[in-house]
Write a structure and sequence with these properties.
Layout (H helix, E strand, L loop, with lengths): L17 H17 L3 E2 L5 E3 H7 L5 H5 L2 E4 L5 E4 L4 H11 L5 E10 L11 E10 L4 H18 L4 E7 L6 H14 L6 H9 L11 H4 L11 H17 L4 E2 L11 E9 L8 E7 L3 H4 L7 E7 H8 L10 E5 L4 H13 L4 E3 L6 H11 L3 E5 L7 E6 L5 E5 L3 H4 L3
Parallel strand pairs: 1-5, 7-8, 12-13, 12-14
Antiparallel strand pairs: 2-4, 3-4, 5-6, 6-11, 7-9, 9-10, 10-11, 14-15, 15-16
The chain binds histidyl-adenosine monophosphate.
Histidyl-adenosine monophosphate binds next to strand 6, strand 10, strand 11 and helix 11.
Length: 408
Amino acid sequence: MASFAPPKGTDDIVPPASAAWRAVLREWDTWAERFGFGLLMTPVFEATELFARGVGESSEVVRKQMYTFEDGGGRSITLRPEGTAPTVRAYLASGVQGAWKVAYSGPMFRYERPQKGRRRQFYQVGAEHLDSEDPAADAAIIELGYRFLEALGVPGVEVQLNSLGDPEDRPAYLTILRTWLEERRDELCEDSRQTMELNPMRVLDCKACAPLLADAPTPVAHLGEDAASAYAAVKELLTEAGVPFVEEPRLVRGLDYYTRTAFEYVATELDAAQTALGGGGRYDGLAEAIGGRRVPGVGLAMGIDRIVLAMGGTQATSPLDAFVVATPGRDRHARGLVSRLRLEGARVDIADRGRSVKAQFKAADRSAAPVTLVVGDEWDQGEITVRRMADGTQETIGIEEITQWLEL
Ligand code: HAM
């Protein structure tokens, strides 16, 4: 092999940078559990039809970005570009009746033009609340994502909120929008002129046409009665929960399944082209679009790659509490100590056997553990030497005091 680099648009996520990823995944599990979401794991590949029908033929994801191939049995398979359609499929397959709250995490695949924060294999955490029509479910989903980002300390997160209305509201609105766009066709960019034919609402999202679109008719100004009162309820519930948000009438999402609530978490301080850390919304028609019964639902997904970027890369904390160094002849005792400390809950490591003390200290340094525990002859008196790596100070303590000393 000429190169060991991973395929274009993909990454190896390795220590120490991966510590931030681990922290993000743990935080996600904590918050998903607190909000009552069970764990869902679905295959990373699905029948192509699921995404074609579920995500929608007019979405860029389905038109241009799917990793689709034929398997050995002649089936058309697609690596999942997102997790919502698979969740709804799994709900229908499971035979569950009634509300279902599930959370997931894992790799997603989209054939994109790679750049910082836009990868071909990327990672999402997500949560879906199925078979609930209540705007309280929308508000709770938005709050879950907000609390999660807040706990991670991501700076400058803005929740942008919109309503795209019900399918019944849409034909009348689209007629108005099309007419408005047609009248300004010559002023639109080439991309928007094309998008207009397939999915006029997506034009609202065009950054290049933003000044022109400031006065465009928006879906939120053309809501039916039910969607309007649901939108009002979501805003009220968010305010009561203390989740700040801004209304963004031109926010339309990139996937076709959204009805009513749509939202994004935007990192306003992130200096990158890709500032959407996550997004989601309601998708009351998705289950029917893939051939099932009506199952209203609402959910969100966040991109871990972008969250880690917004957090500023690696975590400051050490992945270890202590590193153990064995002086000659003390290897068995040192390894026994490591086992005992691990059972007591400490994060501890030790170098390979037969390494010189100097080499072991080098390994201790590299590990970034704040403390080195040196097992020497004082072991026979029930003692070891502890060294604080920050300032090199050391002292001898009783073996029984170690856990206390490590503040475990
Ligand atoms: P999405 O907006 O397509 O929504 O993706 C959600 C998040 O995944 C984005 O905000 C972004 O952070 C991340 N993401 C998407 N594509 C990439 C990429 N190529 N590279 C890096 N990060 C990326 C969904 O996927 C919906 N399933 C969300 C949802 C859940 N709606 C309802 N329930």
